[in-house]
């Protein structure tokens, strides 16, 4: 092929490293290359359809999109060609000489992780699908001509560190679009066999909304393999489970099975088709700070954008498409977020997804529990961000609790099991479930058989602060305000003493309060402690203890509320200390501070003053030593 001004350039370091790892150590299924190249060709056709809305001349006398595959066993080559938007030289260099910027580092980390263990299949997740061609080809040639341009460009590489780029003979280039020629390796010549190619296209790319044809001999007529009918416009009874899986894998860039499929057509004031999936495993960017969604927006099967935020951020793990019949085709991507029709679509899609998840949770708990395991921490963000749908979301959330063991607990089950006299849904939040389970604040609840939710995700401290209710039952932190346990019967066989505190203990509590006046807001007898001597709780109208910690760590609190020190009035140590007379004032002062520091340690904090704590502890030890 005649070219001019071919220039050799080196791949970016990451590209060279990626190619070596991909070809030699990572991928177990080479068939993925054809799916990726067809997907790229379809995207190019969709981009042309979009640009042609405002520039119809780009279509010329060839308005129908198509993807053509040419197999040539004699030349040991396979060609994939499209009549899409095409590329100029600058675009070709950017697209084929560098890895897509987003996700590059994560992709390399995943490749490294896969080297020592099972094979990875990560191509489409990171914008590197084109490079999968080097799994089957020892040389790849790309000829492209951008729609509306009089120039064509050629890219050539063996995938070993460099590539050549230059102008191509316009007569040898497509009239518009891109031609990818794979010069196949000896062990990949089966990819020129018509039967295998047809099976691969039908099984992996049958959903692509652009017709795909195959020419299996140089002089043969092409025959159509797929008709380009978008899967999402078909009725459910026309689509097989395998069709759904193949489409999911293409649109999601993942190679697992979808955990749930949501396919429907909305009619009425707005008409649109939705085909959405919940992945079977966590996408790599699930907790990315940008937290953008991955639902593609089409208008009458013309791709518009994948950045329309069609579902809330807490559903960002969803993958799929929404195809509207009502939005204008010429809407700009900048104005789309303000369009009221899109707002109505977003509301309808979100409600349908949540309602379908509720049905799944009711009808197939095992399948839903798997979804919750992967995405529960993200779904709970909705309780903080989307108050309007809190009722739906509260039906979906699952929690660990003091009685649930390893099985997540639904709120409906919690409410059903509430004790007589119990009027609230009790919870405790923190950063570690094991520590939560051993917290002294739980003792009184355990003694009464009251279930307490153990919330260890950071978002839990925020949504619980919004004072939600479920089936008329408010949420109440066990580390905030009074425990209000007097009306709930004890269930332990060895019931703890619940009698009134003695006058000596009350005097001792008053002494502690006076001694710790700068550190605590109150010192009171506790009805939540049965085994421990002390614990800390937040005042009734102050933030929950965990929520206060998070706000303080984020610099969102100028001052923190003084906690309440609760003392078990029936604990033997407290009773003995209360009997000490006024002559032991200094010792009792040390004890008061040590009890406070003990409560802080039990709460996961450090003593206020480590040196003072050490000195008081030393004096306590010396007091107990025999006189020499």
TrEMBL record:
Q: Region (A) spans which residues? A: 1-333
Per UniProt, subunit arrangement is: Homodimer.
- Region called B, residue ranges: 334-549
Please tell me whether the keyword Transmembrane helix is annotated for this protein: no
Recorded protein name is Chaperone protein HtpG
Q: Which UniProt keywords apply?
A: ATP-binding, Chaperone, Cytoplasm, Nucleotide-binding, Stress response
- The protein's role, per its UniProt record: Molecular chaperone. Has ATPase activity.
